[in-house]
Description:
36% of the residues lie in helices and 15% in strands.
Amino acid sequence: MLVINFFFPRTCINCHLPGDYLCKSCKKLLTPHPEICPYCHKFSADYKTCLNCKTDRSHYLEWLIVVFSYQNLIKKLILQLKYYHKSDVANFLTDRLALAISTNKALSEKFKISYVPSHRFRHYCIKGYNQSKVLAQRLSEKIWLPWIYTAKKTRSTHTQAGLNRSQRLSNLENAFQIDAQKIWESDTILIVDDVTTTWSTINELAKTIKSQFPKVKIRWAVLARNNK
């Protein structure tokens, strides 16, 4: 790692100060995301699905946590991880994710960690890795809880960016298939991802898991929410 840092030194993506991808001063510029319901986006303590949205049978998610608003600095960091193979960015991102989880009262019980799967073509032929899986594995190491497989993506879908809500839902319909490893009906599963806009991906994945394990509690931890 020291040799890599010598030839490819890290610099702050904002002020270009050497040492890390985001220096201590610029870390203070990151904007925390307010507590909201994952479906109606109204205030909800600890990011729980509100009582009104729980009655909708098309909603499969009990809870989420969003660490940051999707502003310029966090966007740059996530893009480094997502498209430029800077997997060590995940260390800082999961540090903040672990802190947000440890201070949230809704996650007081033990849980298993999983991630949003990508299609094998995108995983192996386009990107070479799944950033959500990298985040889940790093988070698992930091908070000493197991990570597991929950599902696989059985077909390649269009990128969600640029699609409206109805197109996103149609794009993801039946895209996942259970690939369970060590899932029990009494489990609480925390699924990790990088960015969300409409929650359609996680809702479809939660729907797939609950089709076979209806009593499993599905919760979600995402680094940032793009509210555009």
